[in-house]
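Students often ask why we bother encoding 3D structure as a string. The short answer is that it lets us treat folding as translation between two languages. Here is a chain of 214 residues written in the first language.
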Amino acid sequence: MINIIVFCVFFTNAYGYFTIPGKCPENIALQEDFRIADFYGKWYQAYHFSSDGQNLNNCSTLELMTRPSGIYLNQSRVDRGLFHRYSIGKVEIPTRVEDAANLELTFAFKNAPRRLKTRKYPFKVLATNYNYYATIYTCQYSPLIDKHFMYIWILSRNPVLNMVSKELSMKPLQQFGVNDIHDKMVKEDRSKCAPKYYDDVPLEPVTFRFPVPI
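And here it is in the second language, the structure alphabet:
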């Protein structure tokens, strides 16, 4: 009975997340000759697109960091202006040079049920000049309902993205076939970036909607 209830909760949540019909876009052009060493350092989320329309956080940043066990990406954000949240995923480096921009993030949650302990998500670099802007996206497909979820980051090295960099970062988005996607990009709210509470443990990333294949 408990299993049935858990499945129903998962299915209901997933149905709400996966909103675009069909599979994830194919043959998307990624950044050529991507150099991950030049991608290190802090990036501010300037704009984002979430295909389910949810905007749960503000003051979001992404930062690559090196640990003895590998390269990791720290996604930090502020929830409702009160709570600092972060999620740390290990960056899986592609073995082929031509796939350098087609990264994958692995999140580990030691206290989660066995099926949810390790979760992998795509992290694709569409464009970047390393010094000013970067355009990143992830996409997940649910064969159960034949729909997909997509999240797009427009990142900036500075809290404010200049107009030239904004135009360059938006160019790759025409590949996705989403109507008026430029108008649907949400500007990051940086008005409440001093949260009252800090979390000591990482939480599940909100930019990746479902932890297990469905």
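Translate back mentally: DSSP finds three helices and eleven strands in the chain. Keep this in mind for the problem set.
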